[in-house]
Structure prediction request, 675 residues.
Amino acid sequence: MAAYNKKALAHLGRRLVHNQAAFSLNNALRHQELLRHSIPQFRTVFLSVPFLLQMNHPGIPGYVDSEDVPRGVHGFERSDFCRIKLDLTKDLKLERREILALQPVVESLFLMGSSGSVGYTASSDLDYWVCIDQQKLNHQEFALFQQKLKLISEWAEKEHEVEVTFFPIDLADLAANRLTHLDDEEPGDVLPLMLKEEMYRTLLHVVGRIPLWWTVSSGTYFDDYQQIAMHLELVPNPNFFPQDFIDLGFPQKPPPKEYIAAALWQLHKAKHDPFKAAMKTILLLEQAESGLRAPLLCDQLKEKILSSPKDQLPIDPYILTIRRVLDYSQKSLPIEDLDLIRTSIYFKLYSPLGATTLDKNSLKVRFLEELIKDWGWSQTKVRQMEHYHEWPESRKLALGEEVNNLLRNLYTRISNRLRADFPTQVKLDQDLATLHLQMLARYSTHEAKVETLPSDQHRRSLPSELTLVFEDNRWNLYAGLTKGSITGEQERLIYTCERAARAAAWLVNNNLFTPSLKLLLKSGPDFNRETFFNLLEILQKKFAEVDLKNLSREKTPVPRKTGRQLLIINLEEPPHQVNIITAELIYRTTWGELCHENLTIKHNTNNMVQYSDLIEQVLDSEDLRWDDVMVFVHPTMAGKEIKDTFKTVVSLNLQQREASVETKNQTSKLKLDIN
Prediction:
């Protein structure tokens, strides 16, 4: 800062004050949009959270019974939240000392995501980044503060059915891009600079210190920013108060490795929201094909906010992002892919599950109307899009597969370009290998792998009433309950397979077998329905969905069996059948895949050979143990006999193996002695 003379410092002070005013006005207008168009429960929680963080009183949510619990938000008493009359405090007589916090723990509080933008829907949640200086808290105080955050989240969920997640962020970690503690939602250890850019672009400042970067003029370089951050006290302006600003670090251009990692991550995240993933992947493609020279979106947003007249505010980050996605897609994608991107944008603005509340006077509606006009969509097409939940299942499945195929093709383009331009910087190290295997776990196909629906959004669009029918030697799953003939109703067909056990595994793998599911089973007279539903319950208990991130370090280049296995005998045979007619195996792989195999039965052989052969097929690797195998049969005398025979054969096999190992050891010792 020594290079700044008095005149330059004065100019800097004027720019900081001007930019602060522009940022604050844009932020305040986004607050108004949030309050005007969000659902009542969401508004109540949003208005209450700062107050609940400010106080620790037995009469309000978030109370922790300890005098040492940290509380308070910087500048709360000067904010609009302090003047809001909340229903939860109307019967309390609060003293001033109970409201004020002499040493507030929260330096800054802001929301991440779609809140206060056109991306908000009725299903949106509240993700708060709670910025603290962790050096000021000992271990016990931080634990108490986390307890307070947990209690506030539980109150929001229980009383208002609003999901609130708090991420306590240490200022030193955030400034240094150490974002490994953001949980499984984002791989902060792999994408720190990506997350920093997204933070500055999407944050809605709620209360507390203002991010300094937002008040520094556009085009400021990293070194100059650091100098300004270190010498704010020298700025000679009576309207500038350095203590009201916070340094969250500088958004630098991510390296090539982060872009390829982000593309892999979006392929993984598409399971939850394929439309959002498609939009984000286009932004990655633009950067990759520009040689990483395209401007950062946060810089573009900042420039627009700081330079726009007041009557053109607010500048919505979601709109800016969508415009950029569309501009690049129109230049770089074939028409069929461009149509998929337009569909993705529409469904991000207008929830395909009908969870969106649309106010005719809202910015979202005006923006949607503008887009639809630009795209040339007819009113018939718009009505079809609005009624996604009524689409034939085949059409939903087709759209899901088309978007997933688009994502895979975009990833290939991104990967090829980055590897060509930056061959030494995108090597498949452990971090990239982990993300790569997560992608393979989702998109790989092989005969044994139990299929998955295109996305969780598709799953949520399905009815809670399904019919499973055995017809034409296949098991077909249809939407809705149908007691009469259902053959030929292809529009309602969701899934088809040859074995009932695979249909059961599919229901569990796609989280459709829930307490609310009504499943009508239509099969032949020899099929035992009670046994089938018992199988469903066992699959749900033993093969619940796995966390791929926790599995990632144990993954292998080729998926292989791991953990428990379920051996299913004679499921579709009469319950009194003593001989083994069919055998099926369900298991998970080291990639987290759920698999189903039909095992080969050696007929016309004695039981011991038949059972031994099945055991060898199940234990086809040295690291698999029979202790992890559960044999599932009809709960009849015949089924008990089959189970008992398996126990006997397994015991004999183990004895033979031990004898073989002992003989081998003795032979080796004898050779050693002779030598």
Remarks:
- The radius of gyration is 30 Å.
- Residues 560-675 form one domain.
- Residues 661-675 have pLDDT under 50 and may be disordered.
